[in-house]
Sequence to fold (111 residues):
Amino acid sequence: NDLAKIYFEFDSSKINNNHEQDIAKLAKCLQDNPSKKLTILGHTDERGTKEYNLALGERRAQAVKSYLSSTHSIASKQIQIVSYGSEKPQVQGADESAYAKNRRAEFSLEK
Fold:
């Protein structure tokens, strides 16, 4: 899909300012199509336990959901979250370059 990915710092669920424009585009799409549902998929790099990474992935997805709700007035019922933790890496590798690409939130939009 052509929806932006939101990347996170190590062990963080804080949304960086450089992602605000991407989230604003996503919000506009949801505002223009109120029947569409957004799923936010939270991901982590491979460091940490499975349980910890699932919780961190959920915090990342929840952070984006909260941002959409509070900053852009998107209804919570229009958004669901799923955490994959480290189960679905975007890239393989055990270095900072790979880790940085795997610490992300992705989006799936249903019609």
Remarks:
- The longest strand covers residues 37-43.
